[in-house]
Amino acid sequence: MENKEKNSPYYLRRIPFFIISYLFAPLAYILLFIKWRTLDSSVRDARLIVASLFLLLFIVDFFPAGLYQNIVLAIALTVGLFITFIGLGGAKK
């Protein structure tokens, strides 16, 4: 995986992409989809999982505080875990 990461742009490497995803979740998605075809599938899947989880948490902040926000957060975390499970190759035998 290290060799595959060396061929990718600096902003799509592990730590810079994590920081971009944490600070600017929609920007991480845009960067990922711009370079989608040039990335290796394993690197692409890992970055998609990270970007999806941070984007779901980013979106939850726009909902009003209270019970509704808690329900949406629970749904977002469930969807995030589902994306992680599928992205890591779950349900394969």
TrEMBL record:
Keywords: Membrane, Transmembrane, Transmembrane helix. The keyword Transmembrane helix applies. The chain crosses the membrane at residues 15-34, 46-65, 71-91. This is Uncharacterized protein. It comes from Exiguobacterium indicum.
